[in-house]
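Database export, one record per block. Field names are fixed; values are copied verbatim from the stored entry.
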Amino acid sequence: MTQWIRRLHDASVRSLETPWALWVFALISFGNSIILPISPYFLLVPMCCAHPRRWLLYSVVCIVASTLGGYVMWGIGFYAWTGFESLAAQWWPSLNLSRVTELSRQYREGAFWTMVLAAASPVPYKVVALACGLGQVSLWDFTWATFLGRGVRLMATAAVVSYGGPRVRAMLEKILLQRKIKRVGESGPGPA
């Protein structure tokens, strides 16, 4: 099970050697906000190490693509959750539906800073986006919370990696890969 994650990760990193690296990075950032199990940090880190002066560009591309992917999950929660709930439970067994419901209740009560903190936390962004949609959070509030929460986290990571060099890159890649393998190992990739 962990081999498919490693292969996907390695293929993503190999894409950095192509002229389409920025587009692949944007696509992975978008897909990660919906269902893709590869974090954009896996590409953000080596890209910032290879081209430290472009850290701001990479951060902005990741934030925008991530937010657009978040809009998809927000839309599912806002408009179509009843049709997707059973499918989500089947494909995403680690998704705690009661926790999503609780998060959506908090968002509905206007806990803007809860959204910001959740977007900045290790909670999968796709869960935050889905809960915001379920909580009927306005798209405007969702967007600002995403830019503040996820944006600050991505920009801070890019800046630290850009100025910290290869030693920081090696440490972060090891930590991120171990967390992803553990998380997917607990939940499985979904039905075959």
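Remark 1: Confidence is low (pLDDT under 50) at residues 187-192.
Remark 2: The two ends are 12 Å apart (CA to CA).
End of record.
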